[in-house]
Amino acid sequence: MHSVVGVNESGAAISPLLIWADTRSSAHAKQLRNSSIGLQVHHQTGTPVHPMSPLCKLMWMRDSDPDLFATAYKFISIKEFVWYHLTGEFCIDYSIASATGLFDIHTCEWSKEALQLAGVTIQRLSKPVRATHRAKINSNKLIAGYQHVPLIIGASDGCLAQLGSNAMQPGTLTITLGTSGAVRRAATRQIYDPSGKLFNYLLTDNYTVAGGATNNGTAVMNWFIKEFTGDEKLPALVTQACSTIPAGSEGLLALPFLQGERAPIYNPDARGVFFNIGMQHSRLHFARAILESICYELKWIAESVESVCGHSDKIVISGGIIHFSDWVQMLADVLNREVTVLSGHDASAMGAAHLGFQTMGLPFQFSNQIHAFYKPESSKALVYKDDYGRFLKLYTALQELF
User: Fold this and answer.
1) In angstroms, rounded to a whole number, what is the distance separating the alpha carbons of residues 271 and 399?
2) Which of 228, 276, 224 has the alpha carbon at shortest distance from 250?
């Protein structure tokens, strides 16, 4: 969603693809975030200033390789790349555009101020279109038998996850956790956040999705397995850690920021930490401490979202975490809130289907059924309340040292 690649007039890539986790624009992001125009651009574009932002990536590309930067015909995301090679159109939907840091979400046009910062013109970006924009396949490789199949450009995966979770009501909070994660609320207007911690991404003409994202989800657990446990599988490790190690990991505390962090701290320099290690701590203690720390980070983001959007009546969980019931229960305990898991389908795919059916004028029925309610266990919630406070204090104490 936050990817950028330079292409020539034929749509061929002439630069590497910079994905969302690429943080080489950290210096540019810090300088912009600390400037007077940083918050202004955030409120105009809906995208927090961070190295994940294509705005900051373009600033870095311009300064690090000016010849390549000048040569590129357009700068596009991976979705635009695929769309162009299917249809021959350089188009970007409002939803993806609103995650670039270059798009004015109030006028639905490219932001002159952001483009000036990035050093690009409107002509070097794709044409913004609604999520319902349609085109036909115009690819020599695919056209036989498919020329009448309509393509709908759709929206971003995060916004579609909100739609696919059937969570468009203002009081419903969604938490998605996979490789990375996000906490979101739907709104019928742009949510003003004076602290600049939340994103505002467009879904349709009538709906905006506000929230915050984390870089560090199952990617951190996969790193731990790769570097410290060998061939162990994630489901087995989660089950073993949760069933044998008590809540709070016997005092062991982790910060999960191996890839820097987005919401709510927007600190690309933040890193992972294990704190308070004792001789009693085993491999499983470390695994559980990571799982708990990811839940603390989601709680931190959720608090930031609700401080602006108001209290949520319902919390819906989606993403890869739903396959780990012990981890979902841990999240309910950390939040000290009841959470709901929907079964059936990937939330983003369900949202894409909903949008597609709606665009074609076809009826759509959500097939998601309530899979389970997870209620917090009071004894564990008390442990996590104290440890969450320690988690916040630990980051605060270390943030200047990263």
Assistant:
1) 9
2) 276
Please choose, from the candidates 325, 180, 318, 339, the residue with its C-alpha nearest in 3D space to the C-alpha of residue 239. Answer: 325
Q: For the CA atoms of 325, 327, 331, 337, what is the dihedral angle to 10 degrees?
A: 20
Q: Which amino acid is at 168?
A: M
- Beta strands (DSSP E) in 247-300 are 253-256, 272-275
Q: What is the pTM for the complete model shown?
A: 0.93
- Do 171 and 143 fall into the same domain? no
Cβ atoms of 186 and 211 closer than 8 Å: no
Which residues make Cβ contacts (< 8 Å) with residue 277, sequence separation at least 6?
Answer: 252
Task: Give the count of domains, the chain.
Answer: 2
Alpha-carbon distance of 208 to 159, in angstroms, equals: 8
Segment 50-81, tens digit of pLDDT = 999 999 999 999 999 999 999 999 999 999 99
User: What span, in angstroms and rounded, lies between the C-alpha atoms of 337 and 315?
Assistant: 8
d(CA 213, CA 1): 12
125 in Cβ contact with 89 (< 8 Å): no
Which residue matches tokens 């400037």? 35
Our measurement of the distance from residue 273's CA atom to the centroid of its chain's CA atoms, rounded to an integer in Å, reads: 22
Q: What is the CATH number of the domain that holds 396?
A: 3.30.420.40
Four-CA torsion 389, 391, 393, 396, nearest 10 degrees? -140
265 and 166 in a common domain: yes
Looking at the structure, tell me whether residues 204 and 229 fall in a common domain: yes
The structure tokens listed for 175 are: 């938490």
pLDDT for res 21: 87
Does residue 136 share a domain with residue 200? no
Short-list 345, 344, 274, 338, CA closest to 312: 338
Q: Which two tokens stand for residue 176?
A: 């998605």
- Measured distance CA(373)–CA(395) in Å, rounded: 32
- Could you report the per-residue pLDDT of 347-357, keeping only the tens digit for each? 899 999 999 99
Same domain membership, residue 116 and residue 50: yes
In single-letter form, the type of residue at position 15 comes to S
